[in-house]
Write a structure and sequence with these properties.
The chain has 5 helices and 8 strands. With 213 residues, the chain is an alpha/beta fold. The protein is elongated.
């Protein structure tokens, strides 16, 4: 992007430089990229750019009179408006080994700047507004907790949540299926869920989680 800016109006001395640009993509040919299902204002076509990495998908979205290619991450289906930012996130995914930790790091890096992500706050952990009832199963009220509904999906089957009052805010705690371990952050609960699935036992998963942390 910086090189293109510097060379604006002059020769780049690059073979087919437009193929490396982000922005509005002409629909020219079919590639092996996997499109996602059509939704909202999106229109499924083909994108001439390669995906940022294995498991990524794309979708063509109509913005005004133009079509743009959005890049959809493998695990959490985070929609990136720019391929360069999607590639940046893919590097964080590979280095962290977890899309949840990668998102936290990406948000930290992009603090105060544009994320180029569609509705980025939906992927954040933190204080959740109580907006609607979902299929998440709340646990019984205890201590300073107040049962309400949480707009986030649970980390996996059997998980429950409870709304806890902290000062003047309400936070959503995530409760594991077997041992009722309460996680304050959904990203860590999801990380623990991956260990549960891989180990097949919540006790072994907890030992591994403690070792990692």
């Amino acid at each position: 992007e910086e090189y293109r800016r510097i060379k604006s109006g002059s020769h780049t001395f690059v073979v087919s430089p437009s193929q490396y640009d982000d922005g509005d993509y002409p629909i020219t040919e079919t590639q092996t990229n996997a499109p996602v299902a059509n939704s909202g204002g999106s229109s499924i076509n083909t994108c001439r750019k390669s995906t940022p990495g294995p498991g990524w998908k794309y979708k063509m979205v109509v913005e005004g009179e133009k079509k743009r290619c959005y890049w959809v991450s493998p695990t959490r289906n985070i929609e990136f408006k720019r391929r360069s930012q999607a590639c940046e996130f893919e590097e964080l995914r590979k280095s962290s080994g977890c899309e949840f930790r990668a998102w936290e790091e990406y948000r930290r890096i992009k603090s105060g700047s544009h994320t180029f992500v569609v509705s980025p706050s939906q992927y954040d952990d933190g204080d959740y507004p109580i907006t609607e009832t979902q299929t998440n199963a709340p646990v019984a009220n205890s201590g300073g907790s107040s049962i309400n509904t949480c707009r986030k999906s649970t980390p996996g089957p059997g998980w429950k949540y409870k709304m806890v009052v902290e000062g003047e805010k309400k936070r959503c705690y995530w409760v594991s299926p077997t041992r009722n371990i309460e996680f304050k952050r959904r990203s860590q609960a999801c990380e623990f869920e991956e260990l549960r699935k891989s180990s097949g036992c919540e006790f072994r998963a907890w030992e591994e989680y403690r070792r990692i942390k």
